[in-house]
Structure formats: C-alpha cells, structure tokens
Amino acid sequence: MSGIRIAHDAWVLVGDGEKALFFRNEGDGLYPNLKVIRVLEHDNPANREQAADAPGRMSDGPSPHSSSMENTDWHVLEKERFAKTLADALYKAAHRNEFKHLVLVAPPVVLGALRKALHSEVSSKVTAEFDKTLTKHSVADIEKILTAHD
Fold this sequence. Notes:
Order of helices and strands: EEEHEEHEHHEH
CATH class: Alpha Beta
Number of helices: 5
CATH superfamily: eRF1 domain 2
Largest sheet: 5 strands, mixed
Number of domains: 1
Helix content: 25-40%
Structural class: alpha/beta
Strand content: 15-25%
C-alpha cells in the first residue's frame, strides 16, 4: 500500500457508523497537519439492543407450514442513516465552497453507504478514499497511517 497525498486545505473525513471527525489539512501533501474542524457523534447501539422482538413469520401458502422472516439489522440501518447525515453536512460545506478536495476514510460498509449518499458536487471533490476504521486513533497516528509508504 502506498500513502496518499492530502492537498493543503483539503478536508479529510474520518468516520465510522457512530462518529465522524472532519479535518482540514493545514500542512502540505508530504507533511499533513490535520486540524479538527468538526466532530459528529451518533448513538448506534448493537442490533440486539435495538431489536424489539423475534422475527415475524410468514405463511408458506396453503400448507400449514410457515417460515420465519429475516431480522432487520437496525445497527446497519443506523450506519446508513449516519452516512446520509455526513453526506448532507459535506454537501452544505461544498455548496459554501469550504473545501476543494476531500479525502474519505471509513470502514468499507460506511464508505459504501457514504458513496451512495454523496451529492455529485461532493463526489467530484473526492481525491482519495481509504477503507479503514481510524476514529479511535490520535490525529498524529491518522496522519502517519494515511501518508505511510510501504
């Protein structure tokens, strides 16, 4: 894996299904200096804490048998909702010309949901994507991980 270059003044979104850190790079492509400009948090308990009941049952037609229905994964749904919230925040910032370049850092599921939710005005500013969970890392570690060269 080769590191990425983060342009001066680029925004870096480091998120997962529960927390998002918005950074602005005050450094340059080789030596980033990420400064937190916004933090969003979203309570997303485990699915077992959100599910209210056992899955429903569905009749198999004229026979007396029935099949259980698949459980809704509330935890995944909340991650998708949070991705939409992040996409909306990025759209508003892009519309105000707050950034020209954007780097997205999130685990694969969240990154996929975010991609789907991004407005074309924001998508056109994405210069790199990194599929890792880094929300619990220090800013210094995030800078090192993103720019590391193997």
